[in-house]
Amino acid sequence: MSVTETLNEGLKRGYKIVVPASDLDAKVNEKLAEAQPEVEMKGFRKGKVPMALLKKQFGQRLMGEAMQEAVDGAMNDHFEQTGDRPAMQPEVKMTNEDWKEGDDVEVEMSYEALPEIPDIDLSDLKLEKMVVKASDEEVQEALQSLAENAQNFEDRKKGSKAKDGDQVVLDFVGRVDGEAFEGGAAEDFPLVLGSGQFIPGFEEQLVGVKAGEEKDVTVTFPEEYGAENLAGKEAVFSCTIKEVKEPKPAEIDDDLAQKYGAENLDALKEQVTERLEAEYNGAARQVMKRGLLDELDGKVSFDLPPSLVDAEAKQIAHQLWHEENPDVEGHDHPEIEVTDDARKLAERRVRLGLLLADIGQKAEVEVTDAEFTQAVMNQARQYPGQERQFFDFVQQNPQMRQQIQAPLFEDKVVDHIAEKADVTEKEVSKEELQKAVDALDDA
User: Fold this and answer.
1) DSSP letter at 103?
2) Is residue 240 part of a domain?
3) Domain PPIase FKBP-type, which positions (predicted)?
4) Cβ neighbours for 353, distance < 8 A, ≥ 6 positions apart
5) Residues 277 and 402 placed together within one structural domain of the fold
6) What is d(CA 53, CA 48) in angstroms, rounded to the nearest whole number?
7) Which domain holds residue 179?
8) How far is the C-alpha of 210 from the C-alpha of 299, rounded, in Å?
9) What is the Cα–Cα distance from 2 to 23, expressed in whole angstroms?
10) How many Å apart are CA 344 and CA 332, to the nearest integer?
11) Following CA atoms 81, 87, 88, 93 in sequence, which dihedral angle do they give, to the nearest 10 degrees?
12) 416 in any annotated domain
């Protein structure tokens, strides 16, 4: 078997692979010899079928397997010897299309090699990390929100009209065509007006009612309503209003803290402070990450595989076009032109992607099974009731697994770089951090 270089320009590589007919014949005979002891054929005992007959019966099919294995073996040997890593799947095609048994097999292989990535002294990187401390006002505001979510309802003054946000306690009976229907009645039902708990139009008609009042509420069930016998039907609910109550936020005290699982109010304040500062830290990390990528982008230069840049540029242009044309769904649209800006951004992304991958590989950064599983679980929550199907889909779809794993790997590499870099913390206000985050979207 011979491998001859035919192209070596930049990152582009081309090779001619010749597999001698004698090598193919030997591989076919080897496969037949392996199978012979188990072969049964009419007129012969098991394992006693002559090799010539086996070759006549199965040789042509095995020849195809032998060709594929020989070419794959030659490619693997080539990459092992040269150290080349193809940027994308190599293009392989047979050149002697008039091949017949007894001829050598001639194949052309072409690919773009990944470039050599220069080493970087990560300790030379100078980064700034914004730090925001949660103020007393912010903590108090968060506690007030928790108190409102844990609100109670107290009776309004006698004769008061119900307002949006009030709770009305009522008995009701619903009828369609004058007949009561199953599930359409309740007693002492507490309903918060504006909560959207009932079908559209019901709660709005109860705004202004008083305790002791009786009122008929007429609504139409949605066409897609779950119960087919009610879908699209008009219904009249006879309501008796028993109580009208106004919302009262819970007191910010130890009782409130215990409702949220904290031992006392001080412990709840500490939890709220930690949560707020964790949110700020996450935003600050994104700002620092952009600074880190900008620093790296300015420190390295190497050839980029054109195929990777082209694919990334087309994807960016496609995404930008859909953002500008949100009404168009799918891919039924004219061919999208790749702009200079899209290509420039693609070059940056490819360069940084290759660099981060190289740094991560050299540092032996890995995404653990536990980290991957947690990420899948987080995404599965977006599909309530279908979590198991989502898990199965991820397990069976290598591309989906890669889409989930890639950002996890990148974040771990960024953390590794930040640990080695010279990082200065700068305390800023929440507004300054938000301005920096907004600037990321504008860039």
Assistant:
1) S
2) yes
3) 165-233
4) none
5) yes
6) 11
7) 153-247
8) 72
9) 11
10) 26
11) -50
12) yes
- The answer to whether position 147 is within a domain reads no
| Cβ-based burial of 305 (10 A; exposed 0-12, middle 13-18, buried ≥19) | buried
Say if residue 103 is in the same domain as residue 166.
Answer: no
Place of tokens 């660099």: 355
* Alpha carbons 240 and 217: distance in angstroms, whole number: 11
Give dist(CA 348, CA 192) in Å, integer. Answer: 53
CA–CA–CA angle 345, 347, 352 (5° rounding): 95
Q: Mean pLDDT across the chain, nearest whole number? A: 91
Contact 107, 17 (CB under 8 A): yes
Rounded to a whole number of angstroms, the distance between the first and last alpha carbons of the chain is 53
* Distance of alpha carbon 376 from alpha carbon 390, whole angstroms: 8
Are residues 322 and 271 part of one domain? yes
268 and 236 housed in the same domain: no
Same domain for 297 and 243? no
54 versus 430: the higher-pLDDT residue is 430
Domain count, the chain: 3
For residues 305 and 11, the answer to whether their CB atoms sit within 8 Å is yes
With the C-alpha atoms ordered 344, 346, 347, 348, is the resulting torsion angle positive or negative? positive
**Which residues, in sequence order, are CB contacts of 276 under 8 Å at separation 6+?**
134, 138, 139, 142
Tell me the pLDDT tens digit for each residue of 57-116. 777 778 888 888 888 989 999 999 999 999 999 999 999 888 888 889 899 999 999 999
Over residues 424-438, the pLDDT tens digits come to 999 999 999 999 999
Could you identify the residue written with the tokens 């109580």?
Answer: 243
Structure tokens, 184: 């359409």
- In this structure, how many other beta carbons lie within 10 angstroms of the beta carbon of residue 316? 20
Q: In whole angstroms, give the CA distance from residue 90 to residue 92.
A: 6
Statement to judge: residues 73 and 159 lie in one domain: no
According to DSSP, the β-strands at 2-9 and 179-192 are unpaired
| Residues 48 and 31: beta-carbon distance below 8 Å | no
